[in-house]
Amino acid sequence: MSLSRRRGRATALILAVAAACSLTPSTALAESAGQSSLAAAARQQKFAFILFYRTNNAATQAMHKVLNAELGRRDNAVLVPISINNPQERAVVEQYDASRTPMPAVMAIAPNGAITGVFAQRLSPGHVEMAIVTPGQTQCMRALQDKKLVLLCIQPNGVSQIPVGVRQFRADKLNADRTHLVSIQAGDPAEAKFLQQLKVRSDTQNAVTAFMAPPGVLLGTFNDKVTSTILMTKLAAAGKCCSDPNCKHGRTATAAKPTTRR
Asked: What is the C-alpha to C-alpha distance for residues 106 and 120, in angstroms, rounded to an integer?
């Protein structure tokens, strides 16, 4: 056999191996059943209630029964059972650090990926209701879980303008990258449950700003006259301003008296 023919066969063999190897990653990275179910729930804007379990014991069956009953009467949530012993579901188990939670456990995931509830070993219908939160609340929870500050602006019906103080706070270079702004309408019936928790009336005539910090601290609610200085001082008083011991906001936090909404 000539040298050129041997080289030709060698090249063909290399290309064949390369082609075969190029198929391996897609096979290895194929979605598990759990990942597919979670992705489908997110696409359909539904909450996913993951039932993590080690064995199909009485506690697992009891939680499964509650989920079946509660989710069966809803069109915005689905059940995703996942055995933590299934190696194919390792990515999901690790993503939610489920192996550290007492089994069985239910974790509620909003369409945007926010974790809205974790319930270990026991589940009641009330837990399911609690975990299905409003669209505005899912935005706030996701940002807080991403370690962001949250400024939730609750606007009177038909109003969309963000208070000047809120805009100035967010524009500050200290806050620009760490602040997430959420805006909702006070009269939106989909946000009624969230507004009740915040004690904000649906017929408010003035904008209300709720200020939150990780992991889920409500620093206060403020009227539409809130200033950037008030927000910074409130943040410093909660010990969540910045790491600078000489921060001017930290020095004045105890002296200032923020004007909160009444």
From this structure: 6
In angstroms, the Cα distances linking 59 to 34, 50, 55, 107, 136 are 21, 15, 9, 15, 33
pLDDT along the chain (262 residues), means of 10: 42 33 45 95 97 96 97 95 96 94 96 96 95 97 96 90 94 93 95 95 93 94 94 84 48 44 44
pLDDT at 219: 95
CATH number of 135-252: 3.40.30.10
Task: Please give the Cα distance from 83 to 105 (Å, whole number).
Answer: 11
Domain-by-domain residue ranges, the chain? 33-131, 135-252
Q: What is the rounded distance in angstroms from the CA atom of residue 65 to the CA atom of residue 70?
A: 9
What does CATH list as the number for 33-131?
Answer: 3.40.30.10
Question: How much is the pTM?
Answer: 0.78
8 A C-beta contact, residue 186 and residue 202: yes
Structural contact between residues 73 and 11, judged by C-beta atoms closer than 8 angstroms: no
DSSP string, 48-68: EEEEEESS--HHHHHHHHHHH
Alpha-carbon distance of 149 to 172, in angstroms, equals 13
Burial letters 38-71, b for 16+ CB under 10 A, else e: beebbeeebbbbbbbbeeeeebbeebbebbeebb
